[in-house]
Amino acid sequence: MLNIVIFGPPGAGKGTQSQLLIDQFNLIHLSTGDILRGEIAQGTELGIKAKSIMDRGDLVPDEVVIGMIRSILEKNPNAKGFIFDGFPRTTVQAESLDQMLNELNTSISTMLSLDVDVDELTKRLLERGKSSGRADDANESIIRNRIKEYNKKTAPLKKFYAKQNKLQSITGVGSVDSIYTKICEAIDQIK
Ligand code: B4P
Known about the structure:
Elements: E1 2-7, H1 14-25, E2 28-31, H2 32-42, H3 45-56, H4 62-75, E3 81-85, H5 91-103, E4 110-115, H6 118-132, H7 135-138, H8 140-154, H9 157-163, E5 167-171, H10 176-190
Parallel strand pairs: 1-3, 1-4, 2-3, 4-5
Helix pairs in contact: 2-3, 4-5, 6-8
Bound molecules: BIS(adenosine)-5'-tetraphosphate.
């Protein structure tokens, strides 16, 4: 199985690159952000609870997102692999993911970490906010909070995967296609 964690701060291009990867490698795309926004759109109990947290740019509780991932893994026993996009975002989530994959006799193949500076991230998200309708893209102070949450709780996961020899850092600035080419080269390294 090919199991990829696509990693990076908000606006680094995780969702954008995941779309290209799922087509080429026939993987199942697991974006916790998309799943949560789907719950909000459907007005479920989970969505109602998640909305105010996401609108502030804070992280949704670990047990909520871990439960969502577990249920999708269980529903896809014959998958060729998964792209984890926006998950894990905390050490607890990363440890749970390792454990869940271990129970399925598989593991993370690589973590692809997209590096983008704060000014570029802010610019991209404000631009997306003009049309996305996402409250968390709409104002600079919320975007700064998302980046702060990332630096505090999520960025340490680079060390977590580096210790397992799975971290590959990729420059996330440039055209979408040029970044995708570098991502494919990184995947070739592990094949
Ligand atoms: P996400 O949905 O994961 O949102 P994101 O970090 O903004 O990434 P996204 O994939 O959407 O953006 P991308 O970088 O592709 O999370 C939203 C919220 O959900 C979180 O704040 C949190 O509250 C909650 N949540 C989700 N997962 C969670 C978890 N595991 N635990 C707890 N809470 C969780 O793209 C950004 C923009 O850049 C786009 O407009 C794109 O077109 C543009 N772009 C991409 N590549 C570019 C390039 N090369 N050049 C120029 N622009 C580019």
